[in-house]
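Form 12-C: Joint structure prediction
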Amino acid sequence: MSETNRPNPDALLRSIQREEAARRRGRLKVFLGMCAGVGKTFAMLEAARRELAAGRDMVIGYVETHGRKETDALTEGLPAIPRRTLEYRGVQLTEFDLDATLARRPQLVLVDEFAHTNAPGSRHPKRCQDVLELLDAGIDVFTTLNVQHLESRAEAVRQISGITIHETVPDTALDGAELELVDLPPDELRARLSAGKVYLPDRAATAQGNFFRPGNLSALRELALRFVAEHVGQDVRDYRLTHGIADPWKSGQRLLVAVSPSPTSASLVRWACRLAGELKAPWVAAYVEPPRPLDTEEQKRLAEHLALARQLGAEIITTSDRDVVAGLLRVAREQNVTQLVVGKPAGWRALDLWRGGSFLNRLIQASGDIDVHAVRAEGVVAPPRGVRPPAFESWDWRGLLLALGSVAGVTGVGLLLKPLTGYPAIALVYLLAVVVLGLFVRRGAVFIASLLSALLWNFLFVPPLFTFRISSAPDWMSFLALLVVGLVVGQLTARLRAQQLAERSREQRATALYLLTRQFAQSADLVQLLGIIVRQVGEAFRADIALALPEESSDAPLTPYFASTWALPEKELSVAVWAFQHRQPAGRSTDTLASAQGLHLPLVAGERAAGVLSLRFHDVTPLPPAQRDLLDAFIRQIALVLDRQRLRDAETQAKLLAESERLGKTLLNSVSHELRTPLAAISSAVSGLREAGPLTPAQQNLAGELDEAAARLDRLVRNLLDLSRLEAGHLRANLDWHDLRDVVRSATDYLGRALSQHPVKLNLPPDLPPVKLDFALTEQILANLLGNAARHTPPGTDIEVRARLDPNQLIIEVADHGPGLPHGDPMRLFDRFQRGPGATAGGTGLGLSLVKGFTETQGGTMTAANRAEGGAVFTVRLPLVALPPLPEEKE
Amino acid sequence: MSDSLKPLVLVIDDEPQIRRLLAVALEANGYRVLPAATGQEGVVLAAQHRPALVVLDLGLADLPGQEVLRRLREWSSVPVVILSVQDDEAGKVAALDAGADDYVTKPFNTGELLARLRVALRHATPREESAVFQSGALVVDLAARRVTVADREVRLTATEFALLSLFIRHAGKVLTHRQILREVWGPNAEGQTHYLRVYVAHLREKLESEPSRPRLLLTEPGVGYRLIEEE
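Section 2 - Result
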């Protein structure tokens, strides 16, 4: 086998992990069509009938037949889960009932229309998320989908048909899914359409003529075919990678797409997703925050683009840098990116010249070994941009008033000074005021102040007075200088301020995080820690905070922390529980239960969630990306610190437990020693007596009595000690391979004379292999059962010990010929100090409860019953471990 | 027998009653007894008096029995018989693997104790290995690899024979699972107790007159096996 053909171990591992995950997850089968009317639902129902016929537990979760007869006929007789009815703004809506399906747990469920948007108030905004939850729960799902609803193809469909698709599903939702293409030639589809066999919602009817043009249909069909081919292609690549078949594919690619608030960025993200999918490469979406703050519209768009990228499976990184090019390349290098995707700028910009070349040129020059894709912007054309975007971020009324006030003030001062200095100097005073103003107010206000200053100076001071006419050239120059200097100064100071603001907010973020970690380091216990979390997060994000943590003593998955500043109502708590169980954010501004009041973030550290942090923001606007980033950093910190605290607590707990266990064992050992040493001395002395010389028959009898009494006492002491070990939980099964015959013999030897009146019949299969059990515990089980039988049955009757193997357990039975068990629940016999009626003296009522304890310590079960032919039978079932193979016999 | 010819047994036990009991039983059966109440004292007395045998209680107050055994074994190969309580199988196995020769469980039977001491003493003195082993109806000619039970020849596989000859070399003495597995199957097989269970069952099937009530090849619960020598 050559080196190159060996399967890549990483790929193999990933494939095993995926296969394992797939084994636990349900399987998704998607019936994909090019558009409505090709017969997807029909095909799905036919496939479902075949599954049902094969004996699978299949139900209809949601199937939309649109009243078509052939389709209706197919649903007849199929089990279905009733739809959920909910009222929204006075309209009765029926929806797929996710919870009922999860509770019903079928093997396979049909859920039509994968891309459907759920009615407001549902758990997930989209049906595909319902399906993912079903798959996570291990339920297989059949669903249908039109190619235009695929996130990565929506743009192409819009270009083909001119119709914007609103209901889309991320391509990642189809990962690992089996695709079945439901294909119909365009002519046949048109024929079905004119025959009225295709259901179209009313609003679409108008678009029908356009949408179902033969050209469109061919293009859509090609799109669907190509998508299925690519999807299958990926499966083939997976197979090739794991099976070591050489492939031209160059591995180790990593993509980075630059995201911006520009409206074209969304199609750029989709393009990158497609490329990443084709390359099977992981991809990163990066946003470099410039010093200039974004306006609300831009922030909203950026958040949408980042959310889109996240949804399509990208890792999101935001960073800030004065220079976008440098920032992008820094992130790319940190992330080992091999290919960079950026948008191709629409035009040529004068400013690029003195910046040292255009954005793209500089990026390519500095990119080194990273490939750069410049992609033409599709879709919405960016609004034309000036040197700077329109200046007025938002009207700053306070700044405007200040500007007007200072212009008025300067005008007053000017009027007073004019007799002393003459009118040209007043221009300098105005100029001074505008420059100073630039330090305090925004660009817009400075602009207005400078315009107003120039006009007022002209009107009030420049002869001819009270006109806007300027007669002399120097006055013209002063007027223009005042105007231009004012504008430029305003612009520069405003930019300076913007940078300052951005830096300050970055600094605030860093400081907040630093404060949080420092306080964590100083806090001693969990209560203090939780207090800090509630206070710090609340202050940093202007929100009411609730912490909910899992509580061991409670049945509920989460218990709200008492000192939260937001008392979680029941509905919000259930959202938090969802976030906790699925380890995904839920609630406001997320994809799940977005109608909730608060944002619920799981505190995930490693494999588990330590709890949920819920925020109810004071502001209505969504968090800007930078803040959201900070919040994520907070959450990571909190999760880590809670996890550390949990480990610390567990460690303390374990130490305490070990200490108490050690003390308990020491005590038991010393008691055992003190009680048993004298007994050992008695028994040994008696045996010495016998050894010393022949005894008379009377002496022989007395010695026998002594022996028997000592042995009985020893058994009692041993039982009491075993019981206290069992109680304290110190008993551990020491499993090893043993011959069951040895165990039985050891038990009968231990009982000695106590069994003298009852012959023990051993009934074991001759080929009984060694079995894995704890010798001492099993010996005690048998000794107690045999001793018990001997006490409760008339002398002379025999006791039978039987054993047999069934595929996964070892069954040992002790049967007697006595009066049988008393009426009532036989399991009560196993309670402590229960003694059978008519028992002869000599039982403490401990034996059977010990037997049960010893059996359970070995993972087995214990039952008692009366035999049909009379007498009682006690049955011990121990788990059976298959005998490992023996080494080959060397003859 | 003159007093000085009787073998000297050092009894290390912190229970005076057990020490007295052992002294009575042993002195009545031809041994001299040297009692030691602590592990420290035991080690010192062993060095001073060079006993022929040591009876050592594992549950001493001052030193763990295993530690006393380790200190003795640093300079002496004197046979050591362990005295231990019923539930401490792990302690017995550890002591046997650390070089103890045999063990007796409290409460002990005097006859059994004397038998153990005899075997331990015999194995301590080097003697010519007899090529033929006999115990009850079993006769094994080690040189000719011939096994007969009541004059009827028995065929053993190579592994069964290796196992049987190991038992014969240590006849009367207990062998721990680990010792047997290491000798017969090699050091890698030490944890594989099930080999032993299967092969001992085979041997019993072939050698014992009543395999479910073995009289030759005895199980020492939780510890190992012992081949009994019958006269």
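Section 3 - Comments
Residues 110-124 of chain B form the longest helix (15 residues). The interface with chain A takes residues 15, 17-18, 21, 24-25, 28-29, 59, 85-87, 89, 106-111, 114, 157-159, 185, 189, 192-198, 200-201, 212-213, 219, 221-222 of chain B (CB under 8 Å).
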